[in-house]
Structure formats: C-alpha cells, structure tokens
Write the structure tokens for this entry.
Amino acid sequence: MVAKISLGNSLYGAIRYNGEKLNKEKGRLLDTNKIYNDGSGAVDIRRVYNDFMRWMPANTKTVKPMMHISLNPHPDDRLSDTEYTSLAHEYMRRMGFGDMPYIVVKHMDIDRHHIHIVALRVGTDGKAVSDRNNFYRSKEICRELEREFGLRPAERQKVSPDTPIVKIDPAGDLKRQVANVVKLVGMRYRFQSIGEMNAVLSLFNVRAEMTDGRVNGREYHGLVYFATDDSGTPLASPFKASRLGKFASRAAVDGRFERSRSDIADRHIADIVRRRVDDALLQCSGRDTFVSLLKAAGIDVVFRLTDTGRIYGVTFVDHSTMCVLNGSRLGKEYSANAFERRFNGSAEAVVPVLETETHDRAPQTEEPTPRHTVDPESDRNTADPRQTTHTHTGRSGEPDTTDDMPSIPGLDLFHVGPGFDAEEEAFCRAMRRRRRRGRKPGS
C-alpha cells in the first residue's frame, strides 16, 4: 500500500475536492471521526467544513493546520467498504491522529479504487500533532497493515530514464499520466523553447502553457499542463506545475532550456538533423511521404496547421539524439514558410532545393489560440475547446503511479496564455505589415 501525505492550509479546498467526487457519484463517504455523518455516503460540504472549524483553535502558530492523505492499495487488491474503513482508522491511530477530526472518502473515479482522508493536525490547544519522520513511520505502518489485512506489497513506482513513455489514456488518472510524461520527457529530451517542448509533449497528448500574473502583489511566472486528445483538445482542467512536482516548474524548465542550448551546440545536433531532413526531402513526393521517411529515420515531424491546412510551424523531434529543433533553427529553407510553399504551393514551387524567401504572403485564416482563465477558488479551467490542429506520430510505453491531490486555493491567480513561438510571431508580424501596406491613405 502506498500512502501520500500532503499538508496544507486550505481545509475548505480539500473538503470541496472530495465532496465534488461524491456529488459526481465518483466517490462515497465511508466514515468520519468527530464530524457529522448521516450515513448516506454523501456529504454536505458546508456542513462538514463548519464541523471541522468547531475543532479549529482560535490561535495557533501552525502554518499548515490540515492534512490530506491518500491510501492506495495494490491495484489487484479488492477491498470492501468495511475493510477500507477499518484500514483508514487503523492507519490514523498508528500515525498518532486517532483522536483528531477527520473524514474518510472512497474514490472510484479510476479503476484503482483508493481512499482519501482529510484531517486536522492541530488540537484545540493550538499545538500540532508531531509529524517527525512521518515518511518513514507511514512506510512502516503501511507494511504492517499489508500483512494484517492480507494485502499485496505495493511501493511507489519510481520513474527512471528507461521507463517507457505512454500516451494519455482519457479513461485513466490524467494527473498521474501527465506527471509521468512531463517528467520523462524532461529527463530524456533536449529543447530550447516552450514551443519545442510542446512539440515532443504533443506526441504523448500533453501540452504546456506559460502562466503569468500577480499573487499578493508579487509577479507570478509559472506553467500549467493539459491532457489532450489526438486533436489537441483539452480533456480536463489544467494541472498547475506545483501539483505535478518540482521537475515541472517554470524554473526547472527554464534551466533545462539553458542546458539544452549549450549541449545541442556542442554536439552539432543541427547538422545531424539537417542532413536527415535533406535526405527525406530529396525522396519525398509530398508531406505524408516526408513524414513517413523521417519517421523511419527516427525523427517525428510536428506540423502546426491552421483550420484551412496552412503550415505555420514545424518542429523536428529526433529520437536518436533526443533533441527537439524548430525548423527555423536549421535554416530559413527549413522554416514553416518554406514547407508551406513546398507542400501547399504551386507546382513550380515543388523543387528538391527549398526556396528561401523571407516573408510568406499567404493570408492568416485563424484567430490566435484562445486564452484560458483559472478560477483561483475552484482551480477549474474555462477553456475554449478549439485548438490548432497539428500532424504528429506517437510512441507507446507503460504508465507510472502517483495520486491525484487537490491544490491549495490562493496560489493560482494567474492568466494562462499560449507559449511563445518565434515562427508564429514572425508570421503575424508579416501579416500586420501587409495589412498596413494595403490600407488607402487617410483610411
């Protein structure tokens, strides 16, 4: 059994997270301790919150007065509600929280049923229950309970550089899958921009977007991650980087950009990729054969397309060198404009050697990607499901296991927007110049 313990200061957020699972019939309230329970298996979020607050001391120095625990037996274990309830109470007693107010909720939103416990960790005297060596104590208690309840031993699966990467399964635990993809892609691939990172993430149906705003008067620069379907449409609300781990943070990603930049230059990766692209261009008869030839050479091509099929971005994901390069990094003849002329232009434009005209004159046919707003209280995303289409190929592998925990409200007052892409920005500037030149004097 795997236990995950999170400390926080948003009691209402944790209660609401579990209450919404119940209200959507994806969970059941199994039992409570010192909290009202009508026995129906449902929960009145406001009533439960008020009951917790009756036990909350008026004055305490504890910064994080509540805890949120998830207990995850082995996927092959099948426990009854009574067994889950006994397991939860025994775990809390041995951890030293047997006398604290808490609720036990069973989650059934994924095939691997598990339980969540929301509890206070501060007594009425304002003192917190000792959490010294909580990780080691919890691990030992889990081993004891496995033996006593006849459960299979289960450890948190560790992610290594050899762990296969798997595409997002819409029916699975999205948060866990997104975390695995982001972590493994960051461990293996080198990229120098958010656009290049998204190119490789898109192969596994994940997308990252930069977030900027202000929290308590301070500027905030972060990242959120979306699980998407094959067309790029989000499957659920975005996950903040803080919910996935430090490896997904803006600081970690920016550091990866810097390290990748020097590594790619030192190894002359662009020259290697350029030669393989040239070989494919000499043999291809169109975009589909170009993609197939490069895939056979170990390179996935990610084309970003407008609704009318116009190419406005291209990125090469080389799985042999584990490097990701926008076409413009290879040279102007490998930019999105050049591929647009070659694959969507007139017959005269389709030649083995690509043209190098600096500006593309095709009209822009779609609006910029809609921006998303995250509600700071509910951490829910209200996003326009329309997304720019793109062409890519996928890879497969095996998933890892983590658990879905709620975020802490008040730390997500940001505005989400699409990541910066140099090729797209250049295209937009060219179209603005064209519109200005086409205006009549005095208009």
